[in-house]
User: Which sequence fits this backbone?
C-alpha cells in the first residue's frame, strides 16, 4: 500500500499534512504520536472511510477511492468495539463473510477455540480483553492484506497483550500481509513493530526502521567525580539524573563525544540497552506519552 502525499482538512483545519509512506507486506508498522496527533484520521483515510483532501491511497498502483473493490483488501479495527457490541459472534461472522469474500470461517473458529473464546449472543458481553482478542481474530480471518489496528492493546492486561502480540507476529510471518498499528504507548509497540512512523501535528515527523534506529544512538550511564562537565552536557541528550549518575543518549555519528567523555575520566561509563521510548523522548523533548 502506498500512502501518497495525503492531506486532510476538516472544517478548514489541517488534520493531516502531506503524509507519505509505503506500508509493505511482511511488516508490522507502528503509527506513533501523542493524543490528537492524527493517528485515527490517518488510519481511517488509509481504510478508505475518509476521503483525503489531497493525495491518495494506492494498492498495486490503483486508488482505493477510484477502485472501491480494493477495499476488500483492507480492514480497519477501531479502538472501540462499541459499534459491534450488539452483534452475536454468529452475526458478526455473517457480516464479515459478506464484506470480505475471502473470510475464512473455519480459521476464525480454530483461533477462537485456541484463545478459549466461546461463541456469544452479544459481543458486548465479552470482557474487554476477550473483545479485543475476538475482534483481532475476526480481522485476521477476513484474509485482508492490510490490517489497520487503532490502539489495539489500550487498557488490556499483560497476558492479553502477549496473546495479541502472538497473533500479530504469527499472522505476519505466515501470510503476505501488513499490519499497521497506532498507539501513543511506545513501550507497547517496541516488541511488535519493525517500522515506526512518528506523527506530530498531522505530519510525519520521522520514519524509522527499528534496527537502523538502534544503530544511531547509544544509551549510557555516566558518573564523574563532580557533576557532569558542561562541555559533555552540550553533546549528549540527558534522559535521567539520579545524584551524580546520569543516563544519557549519545549520537553515534559524532565520534568525538565518546572521546570527550573518556578524556574526563568518568567513574562510571556503562552502555545500556536502548529502547524505542528513550529515542522518542529524546526526539520529542520528553513526556510519558510520545
Ligand atoms: N470529524 C472531526 N471534526 C473535527 N475535528 C476532528 C474530526 N476528526 C478528528 N478531528 C481532530 O483531528 C485531530 C486528530 O484527531 P485523531 O483522532 O486523528 O488523533 P489521534 O492521534 O488518533 O488521537 P488519540 O490518540 O487521542 O486517539 C484532533 O485535533 C481532533 O480533534
Assistant:
Amino acid at each position: 500500500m502506498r500512502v501518497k502525499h495525503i492531506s486532510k482538512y476538516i472544517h478548514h483545519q489541517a488534520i493531516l499534512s502531506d503524509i507519505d509512506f509505503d506500508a509493505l507486506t511482511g511488516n508490522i508498522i507502528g503509527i506513533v504520536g501523542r493524543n490528537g496527533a492524527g493517528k485515527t484520521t490517518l488510519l481511517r483515510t488509509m481504510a478508505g472511510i475518509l476521503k483525503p483532501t489531497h493525495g491518495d491511497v494506492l494498492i498495486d498502483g490503483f486508488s482505493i477511492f477510484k477502485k472501491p473493490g480494493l477495499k476488500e483488501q483492507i480492514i480497519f479495527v477501531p479502538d472501540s468495539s462499541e459499534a459491534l457490541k450488539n452483534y452475536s459472534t454468529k452475526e458478526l461472522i455473517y457480516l464479515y463473510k459478506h464484506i470480505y469474500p475471502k473470510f475464512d470461517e473455519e480459521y476464525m473458529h480454530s483461533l477462537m477455540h485456541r484463545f478459549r473464546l466461546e461463541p456469544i449472543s452479544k459481543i458486548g458481553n465479552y470482557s474487554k480483553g476477550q473483545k479485543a482478542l475476538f475482534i483481532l481474530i475476526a480481522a485476521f480471518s477476513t484474509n485482508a492484506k492490510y490490517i489497520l489496528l487503532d490502539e489495539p492493546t489500550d487498557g488490556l492486561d499483560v497476558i492479553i497483550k502477549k496473546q495479541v502480540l502472538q497473533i500479530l507476529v504469527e499472522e505476519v510471518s505466515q501470510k503476505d500481509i501488513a499490519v499497521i498499528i497506532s498507539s501513543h504507548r511506545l513501550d507497547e509497540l517496541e516488541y511488535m513493530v519493525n517500522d515506526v512512523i512518528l506523527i506530530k501535528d498531522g505530519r510525519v515527523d520521522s520514519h524509522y526502521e527499528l534496527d537502523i534506529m538502534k544503530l544511531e544512538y547509544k544509551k549510557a550511564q555516566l558518573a564523574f567525580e563532580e557533576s557532569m562537565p558542561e562541555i559533555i552536557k552540550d553533546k549528549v541528550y540527558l534522559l535521567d539524573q539520579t545524584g551524580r549518575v546520569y543516563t544519557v543518549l549519545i549520537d553515534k555519528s559524532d565520534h568525538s563525544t565518546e572521546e570527550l567523555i573518556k578524556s574526563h575520566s568518568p567513574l562510571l561509563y556503562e552502555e545500556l540497552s536502548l529502547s524505542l521510548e528513550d529515542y522518542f523522548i529524546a526526539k520529542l523533548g520528553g513526556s510519558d506519552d510520545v
